[in-house]
């Protein structure tokens, strides 16, 4: 069983750019402090170059016990992936191999962090990254993927 709290707000303005939807594994809604499978909650935010907005929270009654073993009879992973569908990135303290594969298949890039940290700090790091040089998988999502420059060089030489 799970519960979802969703805020209804307007879309990001054109000046803010396309928002990046980020899910964070948490047990207290204040810190990134949970493994993906054992997370009791997920906080979901839209992050732009100018800031972030809370979008929704998901709370789960069923979660793994963080033992590294999953009960195949009672799938606790798929409902979590379904809940954060539409997110581009998931931050968690750990993500098991099978879970990571399911996340990637759903279009969600899992990022493991070394230790707990405030959600506000994680969101600020993402905002700064959006203003700098995002990694290739994010550039593709944001539609800012660089095209090869060799054609520009070729065109200049032949003119």
Briefly, what is this?
With 159 residues, this protein is of the alpha/beta class.
- What about the largest sheet? 6 strands, mixed
CATH class: Alpha Beta
Bulk shape? globular
Multimeric state: single chain
Q: State the end-to-end distance.
A: 65 Å
How confident overall, as mean pLDDT? 82
CATH architectural arrangement: 2-Layer Sandwich
Please list the strands of the largest sheet in the order they lie side by side.
Answer: 1-5-4-2-6-7
Q: Give the number of helices.
A: 5
Class by SSE composition = alpha/beta
Q: How many structural units, i.e. domains?
A: 1
What are the SSEs and their pairings?
Blueprint: E1 2-6, E2 20-26, E3 31-32, E4 41-47, E5 52-60, H1 78-83, E6 89-92, H2 97-105, E7 109-112, E8 117-118, H3 119-131, H4 136-142, H5 150-158
Parallel strand pairs: 2-6, 6-7
Antiparallel strand pairs: 1-5, 2-4, 3-8, 4-5
Structure, described:
This protein has 159 residues and is an alpha/beta fold. The chain has a single domain (2-158), classed as Dinitrogenase iron-molybdenum cofactor biosynthesis domain (Nucleotidyltransferase, domain 5), CATH 3.30.420.130. It is 28% helix and 25% strand. The chain has helices at 78-83, 97-105, 119-131, 136-142, 150-158; strands spanning 2-6, 20-26, 31-32, 41-47, 52-60, 89-92, 109-112, 117-118. Strands 1-5-4-2-6-7 form a 6-stranded mixed β-sheet, sandwiched between helices. It has a two-stranded antiparallel sheet with strand order 3-8. The N and C termini lie far apart (65 Å). The model is unreliable at 150-159 (pLDDT under 50).
């Amino acid at each position: 069983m799970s519960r979802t709290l969703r805020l209804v707000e307007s879309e990001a303005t054109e000046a803010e750019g396309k928002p990046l939807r980020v899910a964070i594994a948490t047990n207290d809604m204040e810190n990134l402090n949970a493994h993906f499978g054992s997370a009791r909650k997920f906080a979901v935010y839209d992050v732009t170059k100018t800031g972030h907005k809370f979008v929704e929270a998901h709370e789960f009654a069923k979660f793994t016990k963080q033992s590294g073993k999953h009960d195949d009879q009672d799938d606790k992973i798929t409902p979590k992936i379904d809940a954060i569908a539409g997110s581009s990135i998931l931050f968690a303290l750990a993500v098991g191999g099978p879970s990571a594969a399911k996340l990637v298949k759903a279009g969600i890039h899992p990022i493991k962090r070394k230790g707990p940290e405030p959600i506000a700090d994680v969101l600020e790091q993402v905002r700064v990254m959006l203003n700098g040089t995002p990694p290739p998988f994010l550039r593709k999502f944001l539609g800012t993927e660089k095209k090869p420059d060799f054609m520009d060089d070729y065109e200049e030489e032949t003119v």
